[in-house]
Amino acid sequence: MSVPKYDFNWQTTYVLKEPVDLPKGTVLESTAGFNNSPNNAFNPDPEATVHWGDQTTDEMHIAFLELVIPADANPETVMSNPPKMIK
Hints:
This protein is 5% helix and 0% strand. The protein is low in regular secondary structure. It has one domain. The longest helix has 4 residues, at 75-78. The two termini are 20 Å apart. 0% of the residues are buried.
């Protein structure tokens, strides 16, 4: 996805129309870029150092992933090798 004119007043969520089966070993990556330059009309202070945080004035890129497990799956087997964060 690319949202070149993102407005921080948006709270976006992208939901697939149909679930996708991912093969074992699949790696999902989420990358974001932030425009903290004076050219960004929504940037209150281009000179400020901005860190990750929960406020809209902070950098707050978060990727959420929902995992669906079949109802007949054995939870012990499924969670014996749970998904992991790489970074």
